[in-house]
Each structure stands twice: as structure tokens, then as C-alpha cells.
Write a structure and sequence with these properties.
This protein is α+β, with helices and mostly antiparallel strands and 275 residues long. It is globular and about 60 Å long. It starts with 7 loop residues before the first helix and ends in a 6-residue tail after the last helix. It is 43% helix and 11% strand. Helix 3 packs across helix 7.
């Protein structure tokens, strides 16, 4: 028996856990991939070919990049022992070890620094916060292109921000030179169907889409509605009900950052001067 593909209306409503969301007037396969995104944390041992990773990197390099500076790089990590060590740094996230590939995206000014040195040219502008910011943004744009490409091929992904728990240890593990900073990891592999992960609803657009100017006051009601909708899904998954409690706890204390409160110090140690 062939399964009927979910309608565009169903997919958009699923993204908000709201059956009253209007059906889209336009649709295509790219929009379907975007709306069915979900983080995958259980993987099959099936290999992902080097050719597939090359294609994902090609997609990543197709993302916008500020002034065509291309101040990012990515390290492909396949070695099981190295992935195990990186998983430990990231708080013991076992999916880093399960999946065959971990891509570590970096903000990378070492390449431009080498280019400037080779040409005897100054590169003082790279030492300002703006430039570092560009490196992080470029890496994120590239990685998100890779995510969409991977999911269009039936692969699963999940970001690993916890590599920033100990940037110095990650740099040592990956032999990163000065002025290269590991911004996050991206696990890539074949999803384990037994995980049963679901699309996670997002805040209503009335909380995030503003017309002409920002309005904070109007957000209380849609946020309260979201708390109820996602709470029911959390309950189905055996998780604590409250998104509010989870969110406030995540940013409630320095300790809740799991070492990432040291980010400015870690960037400085990696050669990012942040004037």
C-alpha cells in the first residue's frame, strides 16, 4: 500500500502544532524539506559516502558569504576514537559516536592571515568583533545549507553546540591553528526509525513576525499559547511539560552554560582579539 504524502497544509500546521494555520498558497520540494526538519539523535551504523559529504560541502559553499570572504572551514571527522573524544567534550552525546560522520564548522581567519602574510599586507580589520561575527555567521549559513541538502537526501542531522563547552580541547583534538575557532558540530547519518522523533513546533508567527517595527507587548499571548501546545508534545514524549521552565533554566545561571560562559576568553586564546 502506498502512503499518501502529507499535504502542504498539514506540514505547515505541524510546524506550529496549530490546525488553524492557513494552508500555503505556494509549495515546492524545497519547502517540504524545510518544513519536515527535525533533529535526529539516534542513527543506524550505515556509512555515508565521502562523495555524499563532498556534495554537502558543495551545498554549504553555495550559501551567501559576506563580501565573498569565505571565512569558514569544516573538518570531516570519521575516526571513531576521535568522535568518542569529541562526544565526551560535548557532554557525552552518544549520537556523535553512533553516526558515521561529524562535521565541525569553524570560523576561519587563518587562511586570510596566511594570504596577507604571503603578500606582505596588513590585516588589522580581522581583529575586530565585526569580523569575528562575520566568521560565525558565515559558518552558520554554510552549515544550514548542508543540513537542508542532507535532509533532501534522506539523511538525518543534529547540531552540536556543546563543542563550545571546551573550545581549547576541541582545537587540540582537531589541530586547529590560531584564528580558527570551532563554532559547532553537525552530526550526519542515517536516522534510526526506532527513535520516533517528531517535528518540534515553533513559536507562533505572531511572536516572531513584526510589521514595520518591533512590538514586545503583543508577544505574551502567543508565547502562552505555545507553552500549552508544545507542553502537550513534551508530555507525549515523557519530558517535563514546560517550555518556559526549560528555556529559563537553560539561561538561568552561569553554570547552565556548561563552560560556554568562557567564550570571550576562549576566543582570545584562539587568536581572536575582538577589539
Amino acid at each position: 500500500m502506498t502512503q499518501t504524502a502529507p499535504s502542504p497544509a498539514h506540514l505547515v500546521q505541524q510546524r506550529y502544532a496549530d490546525p488553524t494555520t492557513d494552508a500555503p498558497e505556494q509549495w515546492n520540494p524545497v519547502l517540504e524539506v524545510l518544513h519536515t526538519h527535525k533533529s535526529v539523535r539516534r542513527y543506524l551504523p550505515t556509512e555515508v559516502s565521502p562523495e555524499t559529504i563532498r556534495l554537502l560541502v558543495s551545498a554549504a559553499q553555495s550559501a551567501p558569504t559576506s563580501s565573498n570572504l569565505q571565512v569558514w572551514s569544516v573538518i570531516e571527522v570519521r575516526d571513531p576514537a576521535r568522535r568518542a573524544r569529541l562526544a565526551k567534550i560535548a557532554g557525552g552525546q552518544v549520537h556523535i559516536e553512533q553516526a558515521p560522520v561529524l562535521l565541525v564548522f569553524t570560523a576561519d581567519f587563518a587562511r586570510l592571515r596566511q594570504l596577507a602574510d604571503d603578500h606582505g599586507a596588513p590585516l588589522d580589520g580581522a581583529d575586530y568583533l565585526e569580523s569575528s561575527y562575520v566568521g560565525f555567521v558565515d559558518a552558520a549559513l554554510a552549515a544550514q545549507n548542508a543540513v537542508v541538502a542532507a535532509e533532501s537526501l534522506g539523511l538525518g542531522t543534529v547540531y552540536i553546540g556543546a563543542l563550545r563547552n571546551d573550545p581549547e580541547a576541541v582545537a587540540a583534538e582537531l589541530n586547529l591553528p590560531d584564528q580558527v575557532f570551532a563554532t559547532f558540530g553537525l552530526v550526519v547519518g542515517h536516522p534510526d526509525p526506532a527513535e520516533g522523533t517528531r517535528v518540534k513546533p515553533r513559536l507562533p508567527q505572531t511572536a516572531v513576525l513584526h510589521q514595520e517595527s518591533y512590538d514586545l507587548a503583543v508577544q505574551r499571548e502567543p508565547v502562552a499559547e505555545y507553552e500549552q501546545r508544545i507542553g502537550e508534545i513534551y508530555t507525549d514524549q515523557g519530558l517535563p511539560f514546560s517550555w518556559t521552565e526549560r528555556t529559563l533554566a537553560r539561561l538561568g545561571t552561569k553554570a547552565s552554560l556548561n563552560g560556554r560562559h568562557r567564550l570571550r576568553e576562549s576566543l582570545a586564546a584562539r587568536g581572536f582579539r575582538l577589539h
